[in-house]
Specification:
By secondary structure, this protein is of the alpha/beta class. Helix content is about 50%, strand content about 15%.
């Protein structure tokens, strides 16, 4: 069991390698332990300071991973170094592969209906041995009982929730308590990538930790919110805590 964490602004981030963390999730899946994973980038970290309810939700998760080079850099500059970035998309890929290897069941929640449908098609084609027991677009209320009942009845091994933050974390927090089992993980825009509706940054950008810049170039509408996040990170660095 992974016990080492690094606290940043009160949020306990797992401090391990991607590979070790995936092994931990596999162990929990094997033992059918209910698991709530938050993949937290700087924007999510910022939201925890703006919204106390959301902060409590994130703290209730079983694991919070450092999804975003900004979180890793902040930890180093605060002299509480996190070993490496663990992204939601990379976890999605590894979990899908594990589900394929072990014939596990998955549920896909999020994105537009056309994107969700295509993501399910592409995932099933790439991982033919896993079982997609349900899927639904992301235009829902977090208290939607229909989705809750379907997930409860199908009892999937893994639930990928791609509603964007904070909606996906709030949804998981409200519904996981009634699930019989399952690994629930917030994965942001991962379904868009699997559906090929959005292209992930080339490997060289990822290796250079510039995936955020690639996204901003491809999606200029992100500039305004990125400026807000950068401002928050600078204020955090200048603050002694």
């Amino acid at each position: 069991m992974i016990k080492r964490v690094v606290h940043l602004l009160g949020i306990p981030f797992v401090n391990t390698t991607h590979e070790q963390f995936v092994d931990e999730l596999k162990r929990r899946l094997e033992q059918k332990e209910k698991t709530f994973v938050v993949t937290a980038n700087p924007e999510i970290l910022m939201k925890t300071k703006e919204d106390n309810e959301f902060q409590h939700v994130v703290k209730r998760a079983d694991y919070v991973t450092p999804d975003g080079i900004g979180v890793v850099l902040l930890s180093k500059l605060k002299r509480r170094p996190i070993k490496e970035r663990i992204t939601g998309f990379d976890l999605t890929v590894d979990l899908l592969q594990y589900a394929d290897d072990e014939n596990l069941s998955v549920y896909l929640l999020g994105a537009k209906e056309s994107v969700n449908k295509e993501a399910a098609k592409q995932i099933q084609s790439t991982y033919p041995n896993l079982n997609i027991v349900g899927r639904h677009h992301g235009y829902i209320d977090i208290d939607d009982e229909k989705i809750h009942d379907e997930i409860y009845e199908q009892s999937p091994d893994i639930v990928f929730v791609a509603l964007g933050a904070p909606k996906q974390e709030l949804f998981i927090d409200r519904h996981i308590k009634n699930a019989q089992k399952g690994l629930f993980i917030g994965v942001g825009g991962s379904l868009d990538v699997h559906a090929k509706a959005v292209k992930r940054a080339p490997d060289i950008w990822i290796k250079l930790n510039l995936e955020w810049l690639y996204r901003m170039i491809k999606q200029p509408e992100r500039i305004k919110r990125n400026i807000k996040v950068f401002s928050f990170m600078i204020k955090t660095l200048l603050k002694n805590d």
